[in-house]
Every structure is written in C-alpha cells, then in structure tokens.
Design goal:
Distance between the termini: 48 Å
CATH class of the largest domain: Mainly Beta
Order of helices and strands: HEEEEEEEEEEEEE
C-alpha cells in the first residue's frame, strides 16, 4: 500500500499526540500549574496592581504567581516606567519580602536591589523569585498566606522616592468548587 506524504504526516502527528497525552496522563511528565496572587493593597483585589508616583513621574506595575514544585516557588514581577527627565536609579534601593506562612531564604529582611538605571522615558522589569526552604509541597501554607513586598531607597536623579508596599494573597485551587 502506498500512502501520500499528507496521510503519512497526519498519522505521525496523531501518533505523536497519543504519545504525548499518554505520557502526561501516566504522570511521567508533570508540569507544575501556575497560580496567581491577587493584590489587596488599596482595596484593589486585582492580579496586576498599578501605582504612580505623580511627583516624580514613575509608574510601578506589580504582579505575582507561584507554583507548587518541591515547596512554594513564588515569582514577583515589578515593571518600572520612568516618565521623568531624570534616570530612575535602583542601586541604593532595597527590597523586603515578608511571608506569613512560607519560609523564604530572606523572609522579612531587606536585601539590595540590582544596580539598575532606567533612562528617562524608558521602562524595565525586575523579576524576583523565591523558594520555600522546606522543599515540601504543603498546600496548608497557601491557606491564609499573605505576602508583602516593600521597596525603598529608589531615587530619580537626586530625589528619593517614597517607599512602595504591596500585599498579595495567593489563589488557592484547593478551595475552588468541585463539580
């Protein structure tokens, strides 16, 4: 029997799809599911929070997500938008992450921000990632969790910016209705 290339490619594609689905279903390849945090600062209750320093023309956009993969692994993204005529400098800045339930390495301690300068009328994003020191998947840590990020010591030119504090609560898939 002679098959056209189109029929053969269709059969190969179907075979590969069965192979991939079978692998995923059997548990041989597990991909951690990503969940979001919601910001509860200023009664926002949103996945992305925007704050503007009107005096210095700096916008901050905050968002966070986590996976349960040998403990809670959290990633926080902060986008800085500099609408001023001076450079936004993070080199003297500090960041503190305070978690109610998760033991991160630098929990509740200020650590330096990277040496980053954001030119006038430009933007850049800073990504912070932290892992639970226990290394154990524990959904009980998500229940009642509250994560607070504090930024301080940033400046635009010679002007210090006000401290920025944002509080996150995680989505808890274990509390969602089951049908």
């Amino acid at each position: 029997m002679i098959m056209s290339a189109e029929v053969m490619n269709g059969r190969i594609s179907k075979y590969l799809m069965y192979l991939i689905c079978g692998t995923l279903i059997s548990g041989c390849a597990t991909v951690p599911i990503q969940y979001t945090y919601r910001v509860i600062t200023d009664k926002c209750n949103c996945q992305e929070f925007h704050r503007t320093d009107r005096k210095h023309k700096i916008d901050f956009h905050f968002r966070a997500q986590y996976v349960m993969n040998h403990g809670v692994v959290t990633t926080i993204g902060i986008k800085f938008i500099n609408r001023s005529r001076d450079t936004l400098l993070l080199d003297l800045g500090m960041v503190k992450i305070s978690s109610r339930n998760v033991s991160y390495q630098y929990n509740d301690k200020f650590i330096p921000l990277p040496h980053l300068g954001i030119s006038p009328f430009s933007s850049d994003t800073l990504t912070l990632t932290g892992s639970d020191l226990s290394g154990q998947d524990d959904w009980n840590k998500i229940a009642g969790e509250q994560l607070t990020l504090t930024l301080q010591g940033m400046r635009v030119g010679s002007h210090m910016l006000a401290e920025q504090t944002v509080t996150f609560i995680p989505e808890n898939p274990k509390l969602q209705a089951r049908y």
